[in-house]
Amino acid sequence: MIKKIALVLMLIAILITFSLTIQESKEYLDCFSKDYFVSKTFRETGSKNIVTGIYLDYRLFDSIFEAGILLVVVSGIIFMSKKDEEVL
Amino acid sequence: MIYEEVITLKTSRILICISRLLYPFMLLFGFYIIINGHTSPGGGFQGGAILATAILITYFIDPDRITNLNLLIKIEKVLFILILVIGSISFFTKNVFFTNFISIESSTTYKKIFLIALNFFIGIKVALGLVTVFSTFIKEGRS
Predict the structure, then answer these.
(1) Residue of A53, A58, A75 with shortest CB distance to B73
(2) What total of structural domains would you count in chain B?
(3) Are A44 and A75 found together in one domain?
(4) What is the separation of C-alpha A23 from the centre of its chain, rounded to a whole number of angstroms?
(5) How much is the ipTM here?
(6) Which structural domain, as residue segments, surrounds residue A73?
(7) CB contact under 8 A, A63 and B122
(8) Do A58 and A85 share a domain, yes or no?
(9) What pLDDT digit, counting tens, does each position of B100-132 carry?
(10) B112 in contact with chain A, both atoms CB, cutoff 8 A
(11) How far is B22 from chain A (nearest CA, A)?
(12) Are A41 and B111 in contact (CB under 8 A)?
């Protein structure tokens, strides 16, 4: 019972903080990066799809490490699936 | 023995027939999405997932198929190193890591080469990764 009450209190606290931050951040919202990407992505990267232009040119390190994470996950799954005698 | 009973239950003739019919079209659709990733919605990761689904549908057609997992993960490592190398070429032409290696003033037709190459390699890498994960689970279920 105590655990459930604590959980509900935690969820309410998270809800209040999130709504407060959303209300505060509305004053600082501006569309600078959106305007930049919409107007200049095709000329700078040559891709009509803005998403591709961002993840293969402006933020290429992000997608490279994403591919690396997939490689690590696959290696881990193969390692866990092997029996102890095969590894040693 | 339990495995064989499950297999005979799960592979009906209609499913196998439809899978054989769909398999080439799914491969074609995956490659279309990967190669047109810079002009239309899609890209390497999404197209790779479709390619992996197309390859995994062959487990319906032939349930006893055996894939060589070591070869698959070796190819995946080589592809990852290739992606890193293509991303790092820009260090020699622009002095910046991980951007397009063709200069920013050149026309958009040449810049597309970089996007198509990276999309293609990322797509094949993602497809191989997902196929390896699923094949490992199937191999575990058999043993």
Answers:
(1) A75
(2) 1
(3) yes
(4) 23
(5) 0.80
(6) 31-88
(7) yes
(8) yes
(9) 888 888 888 888 888 999 999 999 999 999 999
(10) yes
(11) 27
(12) no
